[in-house]
């Protein structure tokens, strides 16, 4: 371990970062600089603890961690699965809980049961492909979208979607429902494969402290 080396954290922008900093606060890992809402700064430092933090788009967090530009990342399990980067997932942080599901109108249930060749719209083609091809052994046509996925079955672009369901209200308000569950999701801590060895002591302590708080 190099004593004066900074440990760098990449946090997924938005609600996840806010919840991460709240959790880190409970174990004494704080960053005053980050509280300033008007700042245009990109990197925030805690000189005392020798920690650096930066915010990144969720899907970029595993990239920063794989290349070692960040030692540690916090990001949703959906992003980890979709990006397929070489990183270690070390801890389930317990917040941001939701589910990856196959959703659609009630009428699509039958098409799934009979393993018909259907169209699947999704922001998560890797997760959807793995589910349909490897788990269900169903050949489907994948259509990649970038948001408002629920539109696809409504306007006739696809029969079903693979998307995140949290409260289920987006589905309900659009006459759709969960047809199958792919996997549960939540925020996870990920670590660079070299950092976990080189910075083992500091990272192990961080994980142990977080575990203790999460168990309360
Ligand atoms: C996500 C997801 C669903 C919705 C689920 O979309 O893609 O659309 O939230 O939440 P609910 O079950 O609580 O209704 P997001 O708001 O991230 O925007 P997007 O549609 O642009 O992906």
Describe the structure.
The protein has 216 residues and is α/β, with parallel strands linked by helices. The protein folds into 2 domains: 7-96 and 186-214, Periplasmic binding protein-like II (D-Maltodextrin-Binding Protein, domain 2); 98-183, D-Maltodextrin-Binding Protein, domain 2, CATH 3.40.190. 33% of the residues lie in helices and 28% in strands. The protein contains 9 helices and 11 strands. It has helices spanning 15-26, 61-66, 77-83, 108-113, 125-135, 151-155, 169-173, 195-198, 200-215; strands at residues 7-12, 43-46, 51-56, 72-76, 88-92, 98-104, 119-122, 141-144, 160-165, 177-185, 187-191. It has a 6-stranded mixed sheet. Strand 2 (43-46) and strand 3 (51-56) form a beta hairpin. The longest helix has 16 residues, at 200-215. The protein is elongated and about 60 Å long. The model has no long low-confidence stretch (mean pLDDT 95). The structure holds 1-O-pyrophosphono-5-O-phosphono-alpha-D-ribofuranose. The site of 1-O-pyrophosphono-5-O-phosphono-alpha-D-ribofuranose has 12 residues, from strand 9 and helix 7.
